[in-house]
Specification:
about 120 residues; mainly beta; 7-stranded mixed β-sheet; 4-stranded antiparallel β-sheet; 11 strands; about 0% helix
Length: about 120
């Protein structure tokens, strides 16, 4: 069982930045198992389907949706069992609830609103 807790969302003006965090806690897994997980950030805007924004494998390979390339950076700290997403140059269309995911486990989401 894996629990994921996101934080870092909020209200920001266009062009601003936010850093999301997702802390994982595992029960029933051996120590160090987090480092093998592929971690993902999804987002869901009102009236739209949930979409994959970025992912990072256990080996550190990162992938991004075209809409966020060059603006968002995903990273992980295996010792802290945490995955981050640095979001720069935010746009109104980035407004959504952002979710952390690994395998079939989801966090509760954190709201990001980009508005002037």
């Amino acid at each position: 069982q894996v629990q994921l807790v996101e934080s870092g969302g909020g209200l920001v003006q266009p062009g601003g930045s936010l850093r999301l965090s997702c802390v994982a806690s595992e029960s029933g897994f051996s120590l160090g198992f987090f480092s093998t997980f592929t971690m993902r950030w999804y987002r869901q805007a009102p009236g739209k389907q949930r979409e994959l924004v970025a992912s990072v494998t256990g080996g550190g390979t990162m992938t991004y949706a075209d809409s966020v390339k060059g603006r968002f950076t995903i990273s992980r700290d295996n010792a802290e069992k945490t995955v981050y997403m640095q979001m720069n140059n935010l746009r109104p269309e980035d407004t959504a609830v952002y979710y952390c995911n690994t395998a079939s486990f989801w966090g509760q989401g954190t709201q990001v609103t980009v508005s002037s």
